[in-house]
Task: inverse folding
């Protein structure tokens, strides 16, 4: 391994504050990009190479060359612990400035002093309903935690692919997972093998939001089918000829579509996609007529006049869409369904780290701008402790398991 650049003094080094030192690098250059540059996951950093021909003194910024001459004689009047040329020269002003800066960091708490990058795994494609909700709180969540979050979209198998990466990650606080009710409560009843146990391999951090769903129709997909009444009439007259899109097997939109078919006495054809964004694109194009998706993903297209809202799945109308009736109001009795999401860490993560993430999440959810932004998309913030989230999941599991059984949802393989 090369320890210095070609042609430089043997013991030269850079001592500039705030730079990382590296043991390797191409001759003639004093920096090179870190291997993770442009990786899209862990940020960008740079290394500094050993092998420059001068020192920079910390605090003063003065320079002097590295000399090969014998060490200067010590002052006869006082002893020296180190040779004079080896000691950095500090000015009083620089020392005080550095002291005040360090005091400010320490006073702000450990969260603000973190320098690591946290990978936030979102197990759905970018642009989908889950991704939109995760990113709605990610910025302030990151700021409150005091570390940079980098969103890593890992879609597949109803969220199992990405969540498994969280479950098997090192419990060092460097990997955080975004999860939904489908991942934590439903997939175990739909998939023969998930690759992890949601309750055993993941540590709840906190519930984030509860989200209403909205049934939407493309009025140009089937001639003459422009509202709920005409949709149900056509579906009953043509069993199995009406398709509905979902963001994947086992997702909330999948179960909602099957539930819709059961409550209306129709036979619909399920068309799964790899994420809500891809599914919604085909609905917008008219290739698929129907989808029941989380409100944050559906409302913008309704407001743009591209899709017709059939109803929302909550007990009351959504504040973000007051003119859209509930499906119960529209005549589908007993149709009540809400999705939810939250954050988890790998099993074995220290309790101190879990609490730190939870505190940051609560700070983000209490921000008025975040709450308004989520409410505008049909999501209601649900702050709470890690223990609250675990208890909530344990209550939800039987409900969703019963729903899966009731609608006779088919099993799917990861």
Result:
């Amino acid at each position: 391994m090369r320890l210095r650049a070609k042609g430089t003094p043997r013991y030269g080094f850079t001592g500039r504050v705030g730079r990382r030192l590296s043991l390797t690098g191409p001759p003639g250059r004093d920096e090179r990009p870190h291997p993770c540059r442009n990786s899209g996951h862990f940020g960008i950093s740079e290394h500094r190479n050993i092998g420059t021909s001068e020192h920079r003194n910390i605090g003063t910024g003065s320079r002097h060359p590295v000399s090969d001459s014998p060490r200067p004689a010590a002052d006869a009047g006082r002893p020296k612990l180190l040779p004079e040329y080896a000691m950095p020269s500090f000015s009083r002003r620089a020392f005080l400035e550095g002291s005040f800066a360090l005091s400010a960091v320490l006073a702000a708490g450990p969260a603000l002093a973190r320098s690591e990058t946290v990978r936030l795994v979102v197990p759905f494609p970018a642009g989908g309903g889950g991704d939109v909700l995760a990113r709605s709180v990610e910025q302030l969540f990151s700021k409150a935690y005091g570390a940079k979050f980098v969103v890593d979209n890992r879609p597949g198998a109803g969220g199992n692919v990405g969540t498994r990466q969280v479950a098997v990650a090192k419990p060092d606080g460097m990997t955080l997972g975004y999860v939904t009710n489908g991942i934590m409560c439903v997939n175990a009843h739909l998939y023969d093998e998930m690759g992890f146990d949601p309750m055993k391999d993941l540590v709840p951090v906190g519930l984030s939001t509860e989200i209403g769903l909205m049934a939407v129709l493309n009025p140009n997909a089937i001639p003459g089918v422009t509202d709920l009444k005409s949709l149900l009439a056509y579906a009953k007259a043509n069993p199995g000829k009406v398709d509905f899109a979902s963001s994947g097997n086992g997702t909330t939109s999948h179960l909602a579509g099957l539930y819709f078919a059961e409550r209306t006495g129709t036979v619909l054809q399920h068309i799964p996609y790899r994420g809500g964004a891809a599914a919604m694109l085909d609905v917008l194009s008219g290739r698929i007529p129907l989808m029941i998706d989380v409100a944050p993903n559906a409302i913008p297209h309704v407001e743009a006049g591209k899709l017709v809202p059939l109803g929302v799945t909550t007990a009351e109308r959504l504040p973000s869409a007051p003119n859209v009736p509930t499906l119960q109001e529209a005549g589908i009795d007993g149709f009540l369904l809400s999705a939810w999401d939250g954050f988890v860490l790998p099993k074995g993560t220290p309790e101190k780290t879990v609490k730190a993430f939870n505190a940051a999440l609560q700070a983000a959810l209490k921000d008025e701008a975040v709450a308004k932004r989520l409410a505008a998309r049909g999501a209601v913030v649900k702050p709470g402790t890690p223990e609250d989230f675990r208890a909530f999941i344990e209550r939800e599991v039987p409900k969703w398991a019963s729903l899966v059984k009731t609608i006779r949802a088919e099993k799917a393989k990861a």
